[in-house]
DNA sequence: GAGGCTAATGACCGCGGGGTCATCAGTACT
DNA sequence: AGTACTGATGACCCCGCGGTCATTAGCCTC
């Protein structure tokens, strides 16, 4: 057998190609995967490069530093979700209850479908070490999402669809199960005795939340 | 003024003391603090030493490795909580609803009172990189806690105190707000525009959970 | 107070990974 | 085909930290 058979040794198949326009996206995709899998510190830029089909040097050609790459990766992953959510709120007409359901389901599906869980988890965790990152993502994503939820829930309360409750806190409670799922999945899932049936989990959490917000339930304060 | 005034230069105040018995606890406490503040990777054993009033070398004198120290720190912090919870379940007589409230409040207070939040956050996050750690803590703490909660909730369902629901998932949903609080506090709190009123948050989450579990509420499945 | 046991030290090592840069080799244009 | 431009490379630097160990010095006993 002749190695390098076709067209003989005319085209030694270039070891690499110039692809200035497509590189950044490829690198970003690889970064999203690996950051999501291993976390910030454990991610080696060399590995990111390899998965993106280039070398560490090339990564630095398109991104200033590891931190910048991380920011870009998260931003790119979160943006569609935030946009979709905001759009849903804008367009929606109907009960606040339905809208809330829609928002939560939207987020859930985003997380299920994409690499987002890994990055959500990162946001929640690794960011602690980098206050500027934390601030950025807190303002850009968390606060923004919370503002939307507060709006929706406030409307619900006013309309009598939801029980009277502390809207600010409730908006946080309502997303907690989603965030928990993200974290759980990337921390204990690979190691747990039995996997969580994630759709079951989401359904139950939605059920509990909606029932918990419903004014039909007699308001009986918890006793110790 | 005479520096080193009292008893002149007779006792040059020994640069260090032998305290074989108290060192481990001191080091552990320092480790709990710093791990909690900065996360696993960002924790320098030298800093742990400094805060414990000794040097890095001494840390290694009492703990095999960084990983071992971490394990010990988490174990020590979690143990009382697990114990208290198990005891509460054992001793309790009365409604499942009350018991659930008690358990959640117990955990909340533990987290509030101690350095636990920081370590809980770590468990949820950094452990992902160290599968053996993840497995250990998943089995030792998370599964154990979940088993208890399932038991309580199952009892509640049977007694008609709780709505019929997927007990396994519900047990997870119910703790999500606590874990979220732990994570939030150590990630975004220092950076957020306004701090979460944590007691308010807990109260609201408890309210929603209890109402969400209550069978009084008409069981109306969520529509999209 | 002298001697010995060992807790504690801190200088040291190795290595892994972020970041750099001289060099190479695809590519496009003439 | 030749040439200039630059995308891509990978060998290299450097530093920070986990972990080690010969040495030092506190403490206890006799």
Give an overview in words.
- 2 copies of one chain form a homodimer.
- Chain A is an all-alpha fold and 224 residues long.
- Chain A contains 9 helices and no strands.
- In chain A, helix 2 crosses helix 3.
- Chains A and B meet through helix 5, helix 6, helix 7, helix 8 and helix 9 of A and helix 5, helix 6, helix 7, helix 8 and helix 9 of B.
- Chain A binds a DNA duplex (30 and 30 nucleotides) through residues 14-20, 23, 44-46, 54-58, 60-61, 65-66.
Layout: helices, strands, pairs:
Two copies of one chain form a homodimer.
Chain A: H1 23-38, H2 45-52, H3 56-62, H4 66-91, H5 96-113, H6 116-125, H7 131-158, H8 167-187, H9 198-213
The structure holds a DNA duplex (30 and 30 nucleotides).
Oligomer: homodimer
Largest beta-sheet details of chain A: none
SSE topology string of chain A: HHHHHHHHH
- Based on CA atoms alone, the radius of gyration of chain A comes out at 22 Å
Question: What is the percentage of strand-forming residues of chain A?
Answer: under 5%
Q: Which pair has the most extensive contact? A: A-B, 71 and 71 residues
């Amino acid at each position: 057998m002749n190695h390098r058979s076709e067209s003989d040794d005319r085209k030694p198949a270039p070891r690499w190609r110039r692809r200035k326009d497509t590189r950044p996206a490829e690198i970003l995709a690889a970064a999203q995967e690996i950051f999501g899998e291993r976390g910030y510190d454990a991610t080696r830029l060399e590995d990111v490069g390899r998965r993106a089909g280039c070398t560490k040097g090339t990564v630095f050609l398109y991104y200033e530093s590891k931190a910048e790459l991380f920011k870009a990766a998260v931003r790119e992953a979160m943006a569609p979700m935030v946009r979709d959510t905001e759009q849903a709120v804008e367009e929606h007409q109907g009960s606040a209850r339905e809208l809330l359901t829609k928002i939560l389901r939207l987020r859930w599906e985003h997380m299920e479908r994409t690499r987002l869980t890994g990055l959500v988890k990162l946001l929640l965790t690794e960011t602690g070490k980098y206050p500027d990152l934390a601030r950025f993502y807190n303002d850009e994503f968390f606060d923004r999402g919370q503002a939307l939820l507060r709006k929706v829930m406030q409307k619900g309360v006013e309309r009598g669809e939801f029980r009277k409750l502390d809207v600010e806190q409730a908006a946080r409670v309502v997303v907690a199960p989603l965030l928990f799922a993200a974290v759980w999945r990337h921390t204990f899932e690979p190691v747990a005795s039995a996997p969580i049936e994630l759709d079951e989990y989401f359904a139950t959490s939605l059920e509990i939340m909606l029932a918990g917000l419903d004014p039909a339930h007699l308001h009986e304060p918890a006793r110790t």
